[in-house]
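Cross-posting from the chemistry board since nobody answered there.

I work mostly on the small-molecule side, so proteins are not my area. We synthesized flavin-adenine dinucleotide and want a rough idea of how it might sit in this target. Sequence and SMILES are below. Is it possible to get a predicted 3D structure of the two together?
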Amino acid sequence: MSPLTADFAVIGGGVIGLNLALEAKRRYPSAKVILLEKEKDCGLHASSRNSGVLHAGFYYTADSLKAQFCRDGNRLLREYCAEKKIPVNACGKLVVAKDEQELTGLEELYQRGQINGVPLEKISAQDAEKIEPRVRTFQRALFSPTTASVNPKLVIASLIQDAISEGVDIRTDSPYLARTSDGIRSKKHNFSIGYIINAAGLYADKIALDYGFSKEYRILPFKGVYLYGDPSIEKLRTNIYPVPNLKNPFLGVHFTLTDEGKVKIGPTAIPAFWREHYQGFERFNLQESIEILGREARLFFLNRFGFRKLALQEMQKYFRSKLIGLAESMVKNLDKKHYRIWGKPGIRAQLINIKTDKLEMDFKFEGDENSFHVLNAVSPAFTCSIPFSKYLFDKIEHLIGDNPKGEKVGNY
Ligand SMILES: Cc1cc2nc3c(=O)[nH]c(=O)nc-3n(C[C@H](O)[C@H](O)[C@H](O)COP(=O)(O)OP(=O)(O)OC[C@H]3O[C@@H](n4cnc5c(N)ncnc54)[C@H](O)[C@@H]3O)c2cc1C
């Protein structure tokens, strides 16, 4: 059987892969662009199992790619949703403090927001209550008017339609299995490929290794679970977040509103034991599990970046009472019996540097004139997806265009 050919192959049909495939087609209209997705449909992993929050961009230091793309990504994704008639819940967000100590963190977020050009208001506890009467905060809060929520599944469905109508050849049930001398071996076909773009989320590091990349990095999966409030009783007017620990990439348990106004508590950041460890032994993979548990055990015993405390605290959040207990510090009159419905968990494809044993805080990518690998498209990559994918494709064009053969570049 002779291999099928394409100029570009994008591996992974999440929000990043779909945007990159669209970029390829828009920049090279006569090129054949295929997108290989291992599942029966695109976007079934992080891109549809997330909080759906369009972040404003004030958590990240100014020198980061996250800061560079979040503010504009928020605006561009809202414009995209308006154009495609996808509902956006423009409910904003309050960041609240528990005690005096957290006021320093609140101030740090405010300063980051100022530097990143993000609209953000410092308000009193009384003014916070005017926005959401049930909110609890110590003395002050921040209000972010541009934070919003969408249903990520609707965004993905629309991107799939765009990709199909613009000529991207989407092949589902087509996992990347191996690198061949001139392309890719997949389940049903071999493909001869001009340029390979790896946007495989939880498996991006494994695929990158086949091309000589990701040598210093591995994915460490963290599970995010959600607890939904009874929609007929539980109502909030805005998203409510705590001051996060800025030393790790997670934002702490918070209240988010869906596009339809449903309230949910979460997500957690519980260390998962294999990459797609969503529930029970679903998608269990022994080899993966040995590798990941080994890595987690090492981080636990050496207590790198406070992993021991993080892991022990996060594991407790499997208990409904613990999760609600944490949320109670941010909202008054929270009745446990109104929070009983667990939502679909999502898994963060968080990158860890295996030489330094540190979690990577920013987006990462590596590539050369043959292939490109998106390695740490963690939150807020959904928000950032439009400008971030354009930026990544600029890098790809540069690599294809005028880089001497063999030279490898990345943002590390
Ligand atoms: C719990 C949680 C909450 C989040 N909340 C937010 C939020 O509120 N706002 C925000 O901006 N971001 C949020 N994020 C982050 C955001 O969801 C991700 O950054 C984004 O979805 C990453 O997109 P992706 O395309 O890189 O990955 P994915 O959506 O995981 O896509 C990767 C794709 O690659 C496919 N794939 C894997 N291996 C192969 C293979 N061998 N062959 C072919 N295909 C393969 C997978 O099936 C998958 O479809 C959250 C993430 C999680 C997990």
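Reply from a structural biologist on the board:
Welcome over. Reading the output above for you: The two ends are 40 Å apart (CA to CA). The chain has ten helices and 24 strands. Happy to explain the token format if needed.
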